[in-house]
Amino acid sequence: MNASLIVAAAIAIQDTILKHEADLESLDRAIGDGDHYINMKRGAGAIVDMQQELSTLSADAALNKIGMKLLSTIGGASGPLLASFFMGMAKVLKEKGDASIDTYAQAFATGVDTIRQRGKADIGEKTMLDVLIPVAAKFTAMATQNASSEEIRAALITTAQQGMLATKDLIATKGRAAGLGERAIGHIDPGAKSCQLMIEAVCKIA
After folding, report:
1. What's this model's pTM, rounded to 2 decimal places?
2. CA nearest to 107, candidates 155, 59, 40, 56
3. What are the tens digits of pLDDT across the range 94-120?
4. What is the pLDDT of residues 49-75, one digit of tens each?
5. Which of 88, 94, 84 lies closest to 61, judged by CA?
6. Which CATH number applies to 3-205?
7. Cα separation, 50 vs 162, whole angstroms
8. Cα–Cα distance for residue pair 10/15, rounded to 1 Å
9. Distance (Å, rounded) from C-alpha 109 to C-alpha 137?
10. CB within 8 A of 157, min separation 6: which ones?
């Protein structure tokens, strides 16, 4: 991972968020606060606007800078959660200091676990973690098995898709949707959807 790849990933994420505006807004109107798409668009745009600065940094410094930017850019609960993800990844990359698939998998898993701890949530609660936790587990397992990067990318896209779709049948226990009880069943979580879209976008350019 290097700064060029991080910038390319940021551009791909912005493109997919903009492309799926209608989907994300529809999901959020159903069970969310109605500001998810706007927050994701704002955060993605802020990162892309930093591309010249990011291109001069090491991977860990770039990820940490992204985390700090998201903390001050995205409103609501999403800002601190996504910021903690990037900062968690940055810490591992800095400590490990290598470019192995194992390190990237550990960094991703650490970022996800930081979200889990900060959000006091877990898998099965109809949140972004229903995508992120299975993807982190799959990434770690395949890295350990010395799978090829092509195999890993394909598996992560599939795992993210499955996790996102699984939220449709869950009762939300976190966020605004938690107040809907069983009425939230039948709706995909918008945070899970945006995470699925971002993971797929990054896997297709990595």
Report:
1. 0.91
2. 59
3. 999 888 999 999 999 999 999 999 988
4. 999 999 999 999 999 999 999 988 886
5. 94
6. 1.25.40.340
7. 32
8. 9
9. 7
10. 199, 200, 203, 204
